[in-house]
Design a protein that fits this description.
The chain is α/β, with parallel strands linked by helices. The chain is built from 13 helices and twelve strands. An eight-stranded parallel barrel has the order 1-2-3-5-8-9-10-12, surrounded by six helices. Strands 6-7 form a two-stranded antiparallel ribbon. The longest helix is centred in the middle third of the chain and has 21 residues, at 108-128. The protein is globular. The model has no long low-confidence stretch (mean pLDDT 95).
């Protein structure tokens, strides 16, 4: 299994030094999120400062952009990183697309499928000299003069990964993407009983095996050396889970475990601006099922069992250990247990 960790969202200018430090700790990749900053720019800085580590948008919001724009960004980052870029795309939810990004929203599963297929057509034009003739219901790309064609990428076409939550979007990932990015609000039971069968169904539509796809599990990890630190880490994770659980589109996981009633209650608190009170509603059982907590050594061992369905783990980290070597200890524990 490979391990990734997110770059800090505080300042994109620090991305290079931060990625360099993670590379020195033997991590396999770094992630950037679509949050208060653009997700692509930090990875350009990280690419220039590193040699080995993989660079993933996890995720960039597809519907805030268009297939041509994403193709250019992905192609350029693949060049800058010398083949280490991975394009992770997500749909977001309707209010953000319409009210924050000012873009159209319709049939998200069909739109995402077409978005990826359009990008595939653009990449074929650049890399295989195929005529650009993509005409879908929502996207149309038929013009590529030589002046705007970057030509074949010497490092190949970057992989496209899709974040999917409900079974329908997970099926799209299985059909058209190179892998599936699992949202942090997930449980092993939900993945194994609901989501992975949907991924396999999508892969079968494309005539391939689900085993050929990457599964990247974003996992909430709470690190500490003592109980006081662990409680601080848990509190940060509870706040994050409360935000996720307030979203109607994410209720499917809550319902699978009998926590569905939390969603409308949390959503009501969001509407009332009661953000500071939301974390208290997240029960210990939910936190323990969704996340992994403990010392770095304990977490490394637990992740091996929890994420056995995945090919890589992306750490959504709440680190209260105070130890700069905590990540290294976590990875070492996972590897030692894995080898024995």
């Amino acid at each position: 299994m490979k391990f990734d960790v997110a770059l800090s969202a505080a300042n994109p200018a620090a991305a290079g030094a931060e990625a360099q430090a993670f590379e020195a700790q033997a991590l396999d990749g770094v992630l950037s999120f679509e949050g208060p900053h653009d997700p692509f720019l930090p990875l350009a800085l990280a690419a220039a400062a590193t040699q080995r580590i993989e660079l993933t948008t996890a995720v960039a919001i597809a519907f805030a952009r268009n297939p041509m724009l994403c193709a250019y960004l992905a192609n350029d980052l693949q060049l800058v990183s010398r083949g280490r870029f991975r394009l992770g795309l997500g749909s977001q939810i309707r209010p953000h697309i319409e009210k924050r990004f000012g873009q159209a929203w319709s049939r998200p599963n069909a739109r995402m499928r077409e978005f990826v297929l359009a990008m595939r057509a653009i990449f074929r034009t650049w890399n295989e000299a195929a005529p650009l003739r993509f005409e879908g219901e929502m996207y149309r790309h038929t013009l590529m003069p030589p002046f705007f064609n970057p030509g074949p990428n010497p490092f190949g076409v970057p992989p496209i990964l899709l974040a999917g939550f409900g079974p329908a979007m997970v099926r799209v990932a299985g059909e058209v993407a190179d892998g599936w990015i699992v949202h942090p609000l997930h449980t092993r039971a939900y993945v194994e009983e609901i989501a992975r069968p949907a991924l396999a169904e999508g892969a079968a539509r494309a005539g391939r095996s689900v085993d050929t796809l990457e599964i990247s599990a974003q996992t909430i990890v709470m690190l500490a050396r003592d109980e006081a630190g662990l409680e601080r880490a848990r509190q940060g994770a509870r706040m994050q889970l409360a935000f996720y659980a307030s979203t109607p589109a994410y209720r499917v996981v809550l319902d699978h475990h009998g926590w569905g009633a939390l969603q409308p209650e949390l959503s009501g608190m969001v509407r009332q601006g009661r953000w500071g009170e939301m974390a208290a509603l997240i029960p210990d059982a939910m936190l323990a099922t969704v996340g992994v907590a403990g010392t770095p050594k304990d977490v490394g061992r637990a992740l091996r069992e929890r994420n056995r369905f995945a090919t890589r783990t992306s750490l959504v980290l709440y680190d209260e250990s105070g130890d700069p070597g905590a990540l290294g200890a976590l990875l070492a524990s996972f590897q030692i247990d894995h080898d024995t």
